Amino acid sequence: MPKKRNSKQKRHNNLKLVSLMNIQIKKFYYGDIPEEKAGSNVYKTENDSVNWPLWEVFVRSKQGLDHKHVGSLHATDAAMAIENARDVYTRRQEGVSIWVVESKYITASNPEEAGELYEPAADKIYRHPTFYNLPDEVNHM
Amino acid sequence: MTVQDIAHKEAFGETIFNDKIDKETKIEPKDWMPEAYRKTNVRQISQHAHSEIVGMLPEGNWISRAPSLKRKAILIAKVQDEAGHGLYLYSAAETLGTSRDEMINDLHSGKAKYSSIFNYPSLTWADMGAIGWLVDGAAILNQVMLCRTSYGPYARAMVRICKEESFHQRQGFESLLVLSKGTDEQKAMCQDAINRWWWPSLMMFGPKDSESTNSDQSMKWKIKRKTNDELRQQFVNMAAEQVKVLGMQLPDNKLKWNEQRKHYDFGEINWDEFWAVVKGNGPCNKQRLEARRKAHEEGKWVREAAMAYAEKKKLQTEEA
User: Fold this and answer.
1) pLDDT digit string (tens) for B120-143?
2) What ipTM does this complex have?
3) What is the number of helices (H) and of strands (E) in chain B?
4) Cβ proximity of B129 and B172 under 8 Å
5) Which residues in chain A are contacts of B113 at CB distance < 8 A?
6) Burial grade of B260 (CB within 10 A; 0-12, 13-18, 19 or more)
């Protein structure tokens, strides 16, 4: 039964690979202490029955500029999200206007489909001003 | 999708991922990434967030006892910044598919760690200065490096944090400078705070590089770009010069400029103490976690009431 041995061997190799990877990431950084070195669990905690929804925050840094995504936060409703956003993201006058939207309402394009999605623009170089060669005498263009 | 398709997709994803790391292109939340990369980032970012949150406790201890209104206002602003930094980081970790609730639970259960430095007590007012100068100073070196980390949301959170962190260190140093020019008691208090915070600050950079014989995946993934020892040496070089301006001394008789290395030599860190504190046996481990749990548990009804109120208001507007 050579086939069976092969798959067994393969699984063994996979296991070896996994344990190898685990070893590789055992290093300690500031704020990064591995769990197995950190003593055992000492305390039982309970999840909240309800969680405040997540909101994405956009801030206009000054009049005349676009709103820009700055991060997210939790709040019960839009009014609280605006107030929290002010405290979290504009403590040093980083903004003159804030937008908040519940994260679940954001639809994002899929990075794996980026190729197909943007492909139509790739072969239309005539959309760029540099495509056109003009004589040097032509100014202001 | 067949098994082959999945395997193909994984292999393909890994190639693209490695290529991005090589070319210094940031990894973004929806991009394919190895599970271990995701896990390492969740652990590091959430523990970094916990450090900011627990870091509020030793300083919050002195808000009501600050020596002047000016110092009190500064300290409140600093502690509020630490809360903000924690929130930026939780927000970055949540983009990796972990929930806030889960992270907080891991902190409170003792599973997730935070920087050991915050398990030391803040005994005198001078500690507020020493924490700003040394603890925030050590943190800044890590954080400046992390502005270039490979995971996009983490890097962006760090850029925001670094902009604010400089105020933390400068106000600490300035506060010590005032004490260093004060009465004999104030000078003694200043030196005492430096003595107590110096070694724990050096421990903040983590174990020696030689302790880790394995190849360093985090460096390869560009999550981290400098080793613990490199950062620690950089910190010693800076602090050894700055302390002269204070007219104080760092508590290390082996501290000496090495002309050959172009670095300061310094004494051995007490690693037994380091591991004891990491494992939960530092002076304040118990107290810190208890304060966090108490705040969380006692705030539970507030969180629930706020949610119930928001839902009620929503129903009312829908009916109207």
Assistant:
1) 999 999 999 999 999 999 999 999
2) 0.89
3) 14, 2
4) yes
5) 31, 33, 35, 38
6) exposed
